[in-house]
Amino acid sequence: MNYFIHVTPKTKLFVRDIGKGEPVLFLHGWPVNAKMYEYQFTTLPARGIRCIAPDLRGFGKSDAPFTGYSYNQLADDIRMLDDIRMLVERLELKNYTLVGFSMGGAIAIRYMSRHLGYGVKKLILLGAAAPSFIQKTDFPYGLPSEEVNTIIQNTYRDRPNMLEEFGKKFFNQPISSAFRGWFQDLGLEASGHGTIKTAVSLRDEDLREDLSQIFAETYILHGKKDQICPFDLAKVMNRHISFSTLLPFENSGHGLFYDEREKVNDTLIELIAKSSAYK
């Protein structure tokens, strides 16, 4: 089923809630929306997994206020969503797995740090844009800041073309022109200012201090051929997140959820079902 939930008095998020069983909350990446998980949501519910996926503010069918696109606010949106679920006993998310892709992975990390991992028993990061999306003087990984500035400028100038160019780096495996068009359309469903302001957050936010505040069992799934969030980011996260396991995807680019979708799905099913290794 699909529904809206208010996360602030003036902002509501659109939520997809598919299947019954083990609850999993999915956070999508930039600049698309929760529809990106289509090839997970057609498989996982049949394996006893309840897939819950909000469109983040500014994206998809969720509200797009002019402000509120910092990682703190985006993480707070998820916490408010969680509180409302418990309050009305609608979703009963009290012991769930949190999955975050790309920027959604960064927001998941901030959620774990800022809200002490409230309600989360496992964290799964897919191609996470963390701990820093850009290179810094003391952090040689990620994209050059100038490249992100160009993306932001091109979004102001010609957002459809920016999405087309950005999409060319997303996947490592061949994709059809129809799939490429569908995926670009997901980006076009976002608001322009939401796309820009979250790109600014991707450029400016730094999650290095957040990593040590994650104490849930964590799995880092990352494509070895990722051109957007290089694999070195995954190695840094693995070194600094306690109880974390790095699972490389040899044939995937950034879009591992489609590049190696069967392997990703099988891995998610296994990780979500397994008993915790850390007590």
List its salient traits.
single chain, 279 residues, alpha/beta, 8 strands, globular
Task: Please describe the topology of this protein.
Elements: E1 2-8, E2 11-18, E3 22-27, H1 38-41, E4 49-54, H2 71-88, E5 96-101, H3 103-114, E6 120-126, H4 145-167, H5 177-188, H6 192-204, E7 217-223, H7 231-240, E8 244-249, H8 256-259, H9 261-273
Parallel strand pairs: 3-4, 3-5, 5-6, 6-7, 7-8
Antiparallel strand pairs: 1-2, 2-4
Report on this model:
This protein has 279 residues and is α/β, with parallel strands linked by helices. It has nine helices and eight strands. Strands 1-2-4-3-5-6-7-8 form an eight-stranded mixed beta sheet. α4 (145-167) crosses α5.
What is shown here, in short?
The chain is of the alpha/beta class and 279 residues long.
Radius of gyration: 17 Å
Number of helices: 9
- The stretches of 5 or more residues where confidence is low (pLDDT under 50) are 85-90
Name the overall outline. Answer: globular
Query: Biggest sheet: strands side by side, in what order?
Result: 1-2-4-3-5-6-7-8
Order of helices and strands: EEEHEHEHEHHHEHEHH
The proportion of residues in beta strands is 15-25%
Average pLDDT: 93
Instruction: Summarize the main sheet.
Output: 8 strands, mixed
Structural class: alpha/beta
Helical content band: 25-40%
Span of the ends, CA to CA: 34 Å
Number of strands: 8
